[in-house]
Amino acid sequence: MKQIRILGTGSYLPPNVLSNDDLVAMGLDTSDEWITKRTGVRERRMADPGVAASDLGYEASVRALEAAGLTPKDIDLILVGTITPDTCCPSAANWLQARLDAPQAVTFDITAACSGFIFALNVAEQYLKSGTCRRILVVASEVMTRTLNWKDRSTCILWGDGAGAAVVALGDSGPAILSTHVHTDGSGGQDLLLPGGGSKTTPISHESVDKGLHLLNMIEASMSFRVAVRYFMDAIKESAAHNQIRIEDIAWFIPHQANIRMFQYISKSLKIPFAKFYMTVHKYGNISSASCAIALDEAVRDASIRSGDLVCLPVFGGGLTWGSAMIRW
Known about the structure:
Blueprint: E1 3-12, E2 16-19, H1 20-25, H2 32-39, E3 43-46, H3 53-68, E4 77-81, H4 92-100, E5 106-110, H5 116-130, E6 135-143, E7 161-171, E8 176-184, E9 192-193, H6 206-210, E10 217-218, H7 221-242, E11 252-253, H8 260-269, H9 281-284, H10 291-301, E12 310-317, E13 321-328
Parallel strand pairs: 4-5, 4-6, 11-12
Antiparallel strand pairs: 1-7, 2-3, 6-7, 8-13, 9-10, 12-13
Helix pairs in contact: 3-4, 7-8
């Protein structure tokens, strides 16, 4: 039976590691114990100066295409989920297309913050179902470390850089995407805000820089925690209910890697063994849209995911945005 299949996955993390102790050495008023206890993050990756989102996305894409046994010339559509594109114009997807040498593909970006990979999968699903495209490269790539106020310990400790990718197509065999679900609530848009570069703060001025308008802004952490937990749980429940699957029958939960305490709480609330949550936040931090894409690829490559496994990818991000994908491996 023809379903939307994942033909291959890939990911890429820049080699530069920034540990919690490195942050302390930079003069940040914190400690490894304080960060680890509150977030689960021990270290994160940083892209070199001059390395952009499309560069990270290129490396992840090459790995995904190799896993799928395809070349860039086989791709009809390239979607990039990101809030840190190389440039506002053209899109990161355009830059990636040029780097891949895939002129036959249509390309565009999707802006859904930390939910970007699932939103991009949802868009790919529609193109495949309509018959408009045969094979689609879905990429999520972020250079979050360039959006941070390195004096704000409530935010700069969380984020890292990296990219993940998947090639999807209609097919008869392979991991099947059973469903994707996406939601937004624009009234919560101020809760995670990156104003710089948008029409509200363009052109760049001394005033906008002095006000920190080009840096990531988050609302009070405890409120963000409560909201995120609620939507993560809603996303899991919706995905299970839609597919008539019991939550206890899901083998793996591969979430957007926001904060380990969130998933410890969700684990207790939904009575899910915490061992079923595939976590990478401790070594990579929060990579916005790329987090669950990277974690999915790692779970595939280290053979944590086995044939027949049900895998749920719940996400939540600024916008507000949230959603999920359910995959039968």
